Amino acid sequence: AVVSTQSTGKRRRLNDQMMQLERSFTYPPGLPDRPSNRHLLFAPSLLDSYSGAVFPGIFDTLALVQEDPSYWPEVRKQVTLATWVTHSATRALSEDTFP
Predict the structure, then answer these.
(1) 4, 38, 48, 82: least surrounded by Cβ within 10 Å?
(2) Alpha carbon distance 61, 40 (integer Å)
(3) Cβ atoms of residues 78 and 56 within 8 Å
(4) Beta-strand (E) ranges in the chain?
């Protein structure tokens, strides 16, 4: 089968966007108390080993703040990080990112 250069270029651009999208959700320092878990969108729940959590940094710290209000600064930090990575993911999907 003959594959056109144009379709190969589009496929490559889409693949690059998907890789950048995934990378935009990683945070090198990791989640609170779990530096080996670096994905801010989805990770195993700290509170339930049988399930995962969406935005686990927010989910877990909100649960902890109920027991100890001193966790509020960490909750704010996790919300800020979630906002930042969401904006980064949006930029990764914009057409301007990969002309």
Answers:
(1) 4
(2) 13
(3) no
(4) 42-44, 52-54
